[in-house]
Every structure is written in C-alpha cells, then in structure tokens.
Amino acid sequence: xxxxxxxxxxxxxxxxxxxxxxxxxxxxxxxxxxxxxxxxxxxxxxxxxxxxxxxxxxxxxxxxxxxxxxxxxxxxxxxxxxxxxxxxxxxxxxxxxxxxxxxxxxxxxxxxxxxxxxxxxxxxxxxxxxxxxxxxxxxxxxxxxxxxxxxxxxxxxxxxxxxxxxxxxxxxxxxxxxxxxxxxxxxxxxxxxxxxxxxxxxxxxxxxxxxxxxxxxxxxxxxxxxxxxxxxxxxxxxxxxxxxxxxxxxxxxxxxxxxxxxxxxxxxxxxxxxxxxxxxxxxxxxxxxxxxxxxxxxxxxxxxxxxxxxxxxxxxxxxxxxxxxxxxxxxxxxxxxxxxxxxxxxxxxxxxxxxxxxxxxxxxxxxxxxxxxxxxxxxxxxxxxxxxxxxxxxxxxxxxxxxxxxxxxxxxxxxxxxxxxxxxxxxxxxxxxxxxxxxxxxxxxxxxxxxxxxxxxxxxxxxxxxxxxxxxxxxxxxxxxxxxxxxxxxxxxxxxxxxxxxxxxx
Length: 506
Hints:
Blueprint: E1 17-21, E2 27-35, E3 39-44, E4 47-52, E5 56-59, E6 72-78, H1 79-96, E7 100-106, E8 109-115, E9 121-130, H2 132-140, E10 146-149, H3 155-163, E11 175-187, E12 195-197, H4 198-205, E13 223-226, H5 232-241, E14 251-252, H6 256-265, E15 269-274, E16 282-283, E17 285-287, E18 293-294, H7 298-303, E19 309-315, H8 323-331, H9 335-343, E20 353-354, H10 360-368, H11 375-386, E21 389-397, H12 407-421, E22 429-435, H13 442-464, E23 473-478, H14 491-497, E24 499-505
Parallel strand pairs: 6-9, 6-10, 12-17, 13-14, 13-15, 22-23
Antiparallel strand pairs: 1-2, 1-5, 2-3, 3-4, 7-8, 8-9, 10-19, 11-15, 11-16, 11-19, 17-18, 20-21, 21-24, 22-24
Helix pairs in contact: 1-9, 12-13
C-alpha cells in the first residue's frame, strides 16, 4: 500500500508545505489543496494559489511525488451515502474503464485503489464516513476535496465557504444531485398504524402532542426518535418539521440503525429515518388536515409530490483536480450510474411516465375541494389540455412567492435540457404546466403559476442555446390553485402546491 502516500489527497490544514520558485525569487507556504500531475494548489495566507509544479521546489511532508503520479481524490460526508452509494458508483465507473477496484477499511472510512489491466495503480479514492456537518467541516478545512450530504448547504456554510475561497458552491458547476432520498416516518410492526398526520407529527416533535389518542388511536405515550443531531436527515427534520422547537423528550441516537432498532421494539415509538434505513420497522404514509395522503414511494420522491423528499447533494469547489475524477463526477449523471443509485437503495433520477390512471386520487381531491372562483372550469380546461398527454416525473418547485427554483428542480432543469439536446423528445411537444398554492387571490395565483412555467421554459432555452432541436416544441400553461397536491395550512403543503409539471404529447 505504499502507493497511498504518493499524493496526500486528504490534506491536513495543520500541515504546511513551502513552494519556492526555481532560483529562489519567490517562496510561499500553505496547506496542500490539490495536485493534478501538472499544477499544484495550496491554501496560503494570500488565498488559494495555483502554480506549475515543475517551476517550484517543494518542502514538507505533504509535497506530491514528482515521478509516478497517481490521481487521488477524497470525499467526506453522510455515512449512508459514503458507505453504500459512493463505493457502488466508484466501482461502476472503474468497471466502465476496465479497472479492478479494491476497498480497504481505514480509521473513519475506507480507501479504494483502482488497478488498470496492466496491474498499474490508475487512481485512489479516499472516503471519510460521518455526518453532514462533519463532511462540510472536512471540506472547509481542506481535509476533503468534496462533500456528499443529504441536505442543502446552509447560508452560514456558504458564508464560511466564501471566506475559504470556495465561491459559488450552489452553482450548477460546483454542486449536483446524484440521487434522491426521503425522510420516512416509521413505527413498530407491533402497531397497526398505516398513516400519520403531518401536522400532528410536527406538533409531537415540538412537544405539543404527547399521546397516541391525539392521533385517533388507543391511548399511550408518543415517543419520538431521531438519528444523530448532525446527520442531514435529522438536521432537515429539526429545521423544517420541528422548526427549531424540538421537545426535550425526543430521543436522539448515534446511528439511524440504532434508531430503527429502538422503534421496532417499542410500540409507542415514532421514528424519522432516511428512505433506505427503515429496516424491520413499518414505514407509514403522511396525511394532512385536508385529507391528502402521500406515501414514501420512489415515484412520489422523484416528482417531489412526497413532502419530505431529500436530495443527495455532491459539492465540489473550484480547485485543481485530476481529470479522471472530473470524468467520474460527470459519469454519476449517466443512465448506467442512475441504475446503480437505484440498486443501492436510493431513488434514481431517471424520468418515468405517469399515466392518468395513476392520478385518480389527486383529481378526486381537486374536485372535492373546488371552490367558487371558477375551479370547476379550470379543472375542465386542464382535462381537455392533458387528454392526449402523459405526465413525466420531472417536476419543478419554487420558493414562496417567487420564480426561484429549489435545488432539486435546478438539477431537473439540467437533466431535461440534456435529454432534449440528445434528441429524446424529437418530434414531440412538451408542456410546462404551472400551479400555485391557494394563498391569496385566485387570479393572481393563476398569473404567478404562468410566470413560473415561463421561467422554467426560458431557463431551458438558455441552457440549450442553439442546440434546441427544431422538432421539439416547448409550450406553457397555467392553472393556479386548481389542482392542489396538499393542504395549504402548512409551509410544507404550500411548497408542494407551488410547482410546474412536465407533460409529454402522446
């Protein structure tokens, strides 16, 4: 394993190297950030500096070897992703290049060496398993080149990244979604519960509901269980469901597996875990106070119709990187990689058709809740429009009162533009249909939903530029609050209703 020391990919912020120009005219010290066989990048007191390695002398334990360069890359982040998904993707990528892979455990993670057919070391991948918060800490301290997490980077983290010279971390060039997950409520198989109220679940997390009688079941204490406090799933629960007001009685576990085991044994327990960590517990659906019911399914997660969808984010700052790892990051978006995502237990991002027969419940909900502001007319207009069309699982959702897309929708935008460019929809009409929540005036909401649909259309056209096939037609339509997917009495429900759906001409 001597090859592992050819290049210190998992750099240490505490270990400095010194680069001195040939002739001694310039000398600068800092922590090693990256090396691609030609250029070296360090974090110095002047900021990030990139120099041609052949033009400098290097002193320090982390100096890359000048001969026998082996590409090396490091990733840190959420254990469920680092331990399961990334190794599977790396193995698939290596196989596509004819390489064999070998994984060896190390403290806090594992290392994989990819070997070419001639027995040479082709690349080395370091994986550090932990939590979302620790993953970002590793990234900002230059201990890792990238971070894989189950929540979006926060404003505070973006500010810290900027101070570390990692600007534009949210841009499409620096971030991508490699798969999808979801926060899933679970109960013990000893309990017959099949659904839970989203509103009551929120109240239970805050300590406002403490008995199963409040859920319409036999009396008994409600016991809430969550995973590690700095795990992405738990952080999302605390931020969006509990809104920062979690009850002191909530039990936190060191791992999601420990959480699941605790729920299985306790008929009074409710746990919130990732989609692939339900284990022997019973996953339950979510209902709201308006009667809408959604279950944690692959299709509901793809469309974001399931309210607790959590994308798997990969953040890679702008830095010197061996070309083979640039190839790997691109490869994770290909169909072969998405098949691996699905086999690893996550939800892939491949596009699925959704026939009308699979949408009966939401039509029934819309008809039942049609108001006095022309909703029935709008429903009839909608049915006439989509009578010869099929909904696709790509959806686009927005921040409140705006045309700004959320992170998963930005990823969907890239996927759709790429599919159009590749001719997947040649000779077809794609219709972007906008909807809104029910807060405010119906006419204003209809207009806003149209603006959102047009904003998505314009974004696609900008991405395609001159690559838009002449045989593809992009239409827009707007229906405001006519077809709600959730109750508007919560922020989560309002977000679900603010959407643009994609429909394909049959």
